């Protein structure tokens, strides 16, 4: 286990989520699957308790902690993309597998974890400042999945 690891709380599907992430994003994998040595409030002995996994190079653990805590947008994974094809692939994988669209490049997977699928061109436009940042920002505000061509057109004015 890495020295600093993100812990993501799941009701009971940490292993399924980790396997989905590993199949969807490059530089992702499932590591150790740790089973409960005894019964606990929301599970039984031998149930999957913790799953070590990596998402796009970030070490994580999934904790099957039960229904007490729910995900919200205060935590999200942000995935930088280089092309519309890559943006579409990640967006469609998340939304098309029981997830939910939101605004401005945000979506949620079927476990309720928030994702920002963010083309680099959008980040570059916002960082540039001035009119092009404002135009790109205004264009983004009307989008769900980010449309790179529309961001580039807005950036140019």
Question: Keywords, please?
Answer:
elongated; 4-stranded mixed beta sheet; alpha/beta; 5 helices
Strand order of the largest sheet: 1-4-3-2
Anisotropy-based shape: elongated
Q: In what range is the share of β-strand residues?
A: 25-35%
Q: State Rg.
A: 18 Å
Explain briefly what this protein structure is.
This protein is of the alpha/beta class and 157 residues long. It has helices at 14-24, 84-95, 120-128, 130-141, 148-156; strands at residues 6-10, 29-35, 48-55, 58-64, 76-81, 100-101, 106-108, 114-119.
Describe this structure as you would to a colleague.
The chain has 157 residues and is an alpha/beta fold. Helix content is 34%, strand content 28%. Strand 7 (106-108) and strand 8 (114-119) form a beta hairpin. Helix 3 crosses helix 4 and helix 4 packs antiparallel against helix 5 (148-156).
């Amino acid at each position: 286990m890495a020295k600093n690891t993100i812990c993501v709380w799941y009701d009971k599907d940490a292993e399924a989520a980790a396997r989905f992430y590993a199949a969807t994003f490059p530089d992702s994998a499932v590591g150790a699957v740790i089973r409960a040595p005894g019964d606990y409030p929301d599970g039984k002995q031998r149930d999957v308790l913790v799953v070590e996994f990596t998402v796009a190079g970030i070490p994580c653990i999934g904790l099957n902690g039960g229904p007490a805590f729910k995900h919200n947008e205060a935590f999200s994974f942000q995935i930088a993309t280089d092309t519309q094809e890559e943006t579409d692939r990640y967006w469609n994988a998340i939304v098309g597998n029981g997830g939910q669209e939101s605004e401005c490049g945000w979506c949620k997977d079927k476990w309720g974890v928030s994702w920002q699928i963010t083309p680099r061109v959008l980040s570059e436009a916002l960082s540039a400042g001035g009119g092009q940042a404002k135009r790109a920002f205004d264009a983004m505000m009307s989008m769900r999945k980010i449309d790179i061509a529309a961001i580039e057109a807005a950036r140019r004015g």
